[in-house]
């Protein structure tokens, strides 16, 4: 049994978590300030989690937590910014103890300012290309597409990546990440 983690900070009254479910299709409410998934299996492209960060209530702190989740068969985890880094009250993103099977974690475009992001303890097995909108078919563990971090922090650690057959894995390509205003990667 997976025990939901305590939120690192309370952002509004709703700190509930989706726990121990299998999802094949979902729609996210971008106006929530707290998104929590524990022990959830996301299966297929219909269950892709796509957070459009610039559509969230950035005047409030945002907390996005995924712990002990599994992404299968193209159910990508995507965090998408905008054309430029907008101001925010802070975005905390934690992805840990997660299994990716023919799926990928994507960060794209200019993320809002003051993002604190940690992607840790990820076990990845890629056996086929992942198809994403506006991105050529890729075999990736972590895809950084034209990312701009402003006054932000991105930590990626303890990623175990395996490819079956003749598949080649890519984490990122040089020139795809821009760090400004004291950001670190």
From TrEMBL:
Identify the domain of life. Eukaryota
All copies of domain Dispersed gene family protein 1 beta-sheet, residue ranges: 63-165
Q: What organism, scientifically named, is this protein from?
A: Trypanosoma cruzi marinkellei
This chain's protein is named Dispersed gene family protein 1 (DGF-1), putative
Lineage summary: Eukaryota, Discoba, Euglenozoa, Kinetoplastea, Metakinetoplastina
Which InterPro entries does the record cross-reference, listed alphabetically?
DGF-1_b-sheet_dom (IPR053915)
